[in-house]
């Protein structure tokens, strides 16, 4: 398979993954559940003091996607669960969920993350298929190239996300920090 088709299929996979995130964002939560998720999110984001922490977390999730058979469904669950944080944010701030899920795309880092996730997820699916067909060895080289590209994109996204977090920290009320 040529790289152009891999890239295109990875982009389609990114759209699919974003739809999973949107499904999580539109999942109704109770006010109590939403507040608990926001506390958890504040604990997590409060400890971020480097773009490399964001990158390491996103890379770990991405590498999980590559594990044949187990990785893609696990990653879909993680992405859906992330969408639940968007739902919680929507509920606690009275902002429509569509705004919370579009904001990362507009700020570019979210689009870059999901493009990279699409690379990893798509190749996790391909690894599963090639294991069944007993052709994993021939898949490794082209997949490695796409994974390296995905890793570079993830690193770029992490730096942009960190800059955004640092920039917004000055404007958000202390209850959100």
Beginning-to-end CA distance, first to last residue: 46 Å
For the sheet with most strands, the description reads: none
Outline: globular
Instruction: Classify the beta-strand content into a percent band.
Output: under 5%
Please report the total strand number as a whole number. 0
Measured as a percent range, the helix fraction is: over 70%
What class do helices, strands and sheet pairing give?
Answer: mainly alpha
Which sequence of SSEs, written as H and E, runs from N to C?
HHHHHHH
Point out poorly predicted stretches: none
| Average pLDDT reading | 92
In the residues, how many domains can be counted? 1
Question: Mind explaining what this structure looks like?
Answer:
- This protein has 177 residues and is mostly helical.
- The chain has one domain (3-176).
- Helix content is 82%, strand content 0%.
- It has 7 helices and no strands.
- It has helices at residues 3-25, 31-46, 51-65, 71-93, 97-106, 109-132, 136-169.
- Helix 4 (71-93) packs across helix 5.
- The radius of gyration is 17 Å and the shape is globular.
Gist of the model:
This protein has 177 residues and is mostly helical. Helices cover 82% and strands 0% of the residues. It has one domain (3-176).
Task: List its traits.
globular, 177 residues, mainly alpha, 82% helix
List the helices and strands and how they pair.
Layout: H1 3-25, H2 31-46, H3 51-65, H4 71-93, H5 97-106, H6 109-132, H7 136-169
Helix pairs in contact: 1-4, 1-6, 2-4, 3-4, 3-6, 3-7, 4-5, 5-6, 6-7
